[in-house]
Amino acid sequence: MNVEDFSPQTLIHSWRLWLLAGLFLLALSILTWRLWNVQVLDSPRYGAAQSAQSFRYVEVPGLRGRILDRNGEVLADNRPAYAVALYCEELRSAGRYTTLAADTLIDQLALRLGLPRTLTREQVATHIRTSLPMPLIIWQDVDYRTIAYLSEWAEELPGVTVLPMPKRIYPNGALAAHTIGYVGAPGKKQSNYTNSGRKWNYRLPELRGRAGLEARYDSILAGKSGEENLRVDSRGYTRERWVCEEAVPGSDLTTTLDVRLQRVAEAALNGRPGAVVALDPRNGDILSLASAPGYDLNMMIPPHAGATLARLNNTPGLPFINRPIQAQYAPGSVFKPFVAIAGQACGHNPDTLYDCRGIYTDYNCRLRCAQRYGHGELDLRQAIMKSCNPYFCTMGTQIGIEAIIQTAKAAGFSAATGIDLPAEAKGFIPSPEWKQRRYKNKWNPVDTAQCAIGQGAITATPLQVAYATSAIAMRGKQYRPRLAAFGKTTGELVHTLPWSQRALTEVIEGMKMTVRAGTGQTMQVDGVSVAGKTGTAEYMDRGVRRKHVWCTAFAPADKPEIVVCVMLDNGIGGGRDAGPVVQKVLASYFKTSATEVTADEETLSD
Questions:
Q1: How does 278-289 read in b/e, with b if 16+ C-beta sit within 10 Å?
Q2: What is the tally of structural domains in the chain?
């Protein structure tokens, strides 16, 4: 070997070559390691990410279940309906040209079919940008002439299809509208995830319950959504679609309502603002729940809902209020039987006579009786029968407001009954603490006298009055009101009240006398003993003094099968106005005739 081969310059040059080779090998090793990581170790992660980008999950709603009355008559159903839709991706144009092509095709369809255009160009562009694989709904609920035309010219209309989209229908229109409720677009609380935990990318149009039973039992009626999967390319066009999970139809809901009785109740109201409640006190079944004025449920289905809401919100009489459970009124004299129970619990003798002079003047107040010149001497039963204000004012001030509050709350006043409908009101029972807190004033005996006759700040819903009446009818037992029994004949026993049976006998006898010869004679029906109570409560309406009028009753009086409560706005007297409505409902239930009675206006004025 030549000595020059070991010169410093040669050694330095050789070291550089080895360093370069080492760096090259290191870089190659790192690249190989990273490739192995990406292609082997991280392959599942990248595969999942690719799938997430290329797969779309579509929610397919199930067919909604029906709502039936207790005898199987259909209250809410679905009917076949079809929509004209456009799959914009089948036009296969890039960018804004897809929007232009879709927009042009929609104009051509509108001209051919003679239908008004319902979508703006902005809506079409938004759909293409955000929901390209999904059908763009152009027209809903089209007729068979349109369907036939599209079938005949299908080859000349790329992307245009007819989709089945069943519509909700209410065969009886406005009947029991507030109870049945209606459907609409899903709310914000709707789940955004599939049954397997993946997030929905798209949803086909569906309807969810928005009011009444449709809302309360939406999870039962709506069924279980299915899942359709799409595989799309990088531009968003569908390459493959398949059904991953079939939609399951919703279950039918059988209610406790009796359509025959409901028709009678609504016909008796005849559009007059008011409410009718009919229930079975033996188990809490609601037989009829009528509210007037009402509205046609078929007009609440999209796309009509918006215009209907705007119109009804400006309609006098507040047709959207479900009066049996949401309207709160002073109960007037229908509250007196509960004051009678409270009085006897405090030691009041029902046989003690009171001399009614036609006006109550204690504590410097003047509360008039329905009988202008007074009833003369009467006991508890007669005071109920004749609805004597001074008698109950005197009793109320003697026993005190706390005794009245205790009995009233035990009967169900000032609390929701728990009926299976949304947005039930609670009513209100005033107290000394409430008055001090609100008005910075002490409670006084005049306040107690007002409460004892169902006036003042006390309020109740018609359902609460019916529910409380059922406690008297069943001698202390109360069953929760219900609209869906799910096959159960026995109800949910809520309370067994510790009321004296003797006190209940006295009150029931007074209520029977009310119907036989008192203020409630207009509630009589042939062949059936009826116990009831009338009531009238004054209120101010834009400076005008008006009256809410009430009647509540149960029959047969000694073995009750039905409780009926009626409330009417702007009446004259409970016996005069509300009594005949109760009479018609009872006559229909017992399949008998209304008894003809002759009573003077003053007798029926409460």
A1: bbbbbbbbbbbb
A2: 3
